Amino acid sequence: MKNILYKAFAIAAISLSLISCSSDDNEEAAGNGNITLKFDNAYGTNDLILNTQGNTTSNNEVLKISLVKYIVSNVVFTKADGSTFTYPKSKSYFIADESTAAGQQFKLTDIPAGDYVKVKFGIGVDEEQWKLGAAGQGDFLAQADAAGMMWSWAAGYKFFALEGTFTSPTVTTATPFMIHTGKTGTDYNYTEVTIDFPTKALVRTNITPAVHIITDLSKVIDGTNKIKLSDNNSGGMGAMIMGGANLPLITQNFNTMFRVDHVHND
Fold first, then answer.
1. What's the gap between Cα 125 and its chain centre?
2. Chain centroid offset of residue 119 CA
């Protein structure tokens, strides 16, 4: 009889514990919180150092990078249960900039509480939003212009900008290079990237996860598509890739350029 009563009490205790845990989980997942996306630029396995660091490609070209900027937009988070939250497009424009602290991390606010496992974002401004003008982008046009992320000779954004100097077996003197993507001719060159989190980002009213994203700039011209700067060096201007057949190939390389290193749930 005592054993039966003991078992009954044990079952009741476990049931109450499960109900309590379930209640706590529901309470934790209520309301809205914030999440921070941190973009850490690297070249291969090395943290990026502007101006002085020599970065060697598989084609034996050595790059010294002086500027890297790119527009991050259209952020969508996916929860562990498969549901998604689309950050409002009107707020979803950020300029990653290696040269400034403000350009290396972005806090997104009013995110529904939950356990998030991946993020999708665009590099550039999608064509539909661009056609809406200020109605679709708010004051971001002025912000992008101030940051030098607008084409000077035509309407439209620079989606991605990488600049510096390079040498190669055939170009032995340090020579300027520029890689700028955006709308060129019939190619819009906007792309979206989806990356998984190694651990869940626990958005709560009292927890703001920081998602540490590594941007491997070696993938720009040395990813799936291999591009030689020396093949684009002409006219005494250096290697200027701002259009032509290489730009869509570079845009394709962006798909492997990002990964999440870790998530802080603080």
1. 13
2. 9
Q: Dihedral sign for Cα 133, 138, 144, 145, please.
A: positive
- State the DSSP code for 63: E
Are the C-beta atoms of 204 and 34 separated by less than 8 Å?
A: no
pLDDT band at 6; cut points 50, 70, 90? very low
Q: Is 198 exposed, middle or buried (0-12, 13-18, 19+ CB in 10 A)?
A: exposed
Half-sphere exposure of 44 (CA within 13 A, CB side): 10
- Find how far residue 51's CA is from the centre of its chain: 22
Q: What is the dihedral of CA 253, 160, 37, 192, to 10 degrees?
A: -50
Q: Taking the complete model, does pTM exceed 0.85, yes or no?
A: yes
pLDDT score of 110 more than 70: yes
| Helix, strand, coil share (%) of the chain residues, nearest 5 | 25, 45, 30
Pairing between β-strand 209-216 and β-strand 32-43 as defined by DSSP bridges: parallel
Model pLDDT for residues 48-70, shown as the tens digit of each residue: 999 999 999 999 999 999 999 99
